[in-house]
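Before we proceed, please read the two lines closing this message. Report back on whether the structure tokens fit the sequence:
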Amino acid sequence: MRLFLAVAVLMLAFIAYTEAQEETAEQKLAKFGKQMTEMGKNLAEKAKTTFENINNSEFAVTSRNWFTEQLEKLKTRVQEISQ
């Protein structure tokens, strides 16, 4: 009889311990919110880095310089015509 009582008490203690270890719904939602925030920050950082890489690429710089030169040539021609 004592053995059964001891086993029952140990089982109750084990169940109480495992229930105490489980996260509540509020804790799970808070954890999920933190994960989503972190994921959003990582995504934003990756997008920023990618945009900077594209913006500073050789093709982008060359294209930008070419368009600037063409615009300056056009301005010069318009000024010559208007004089």
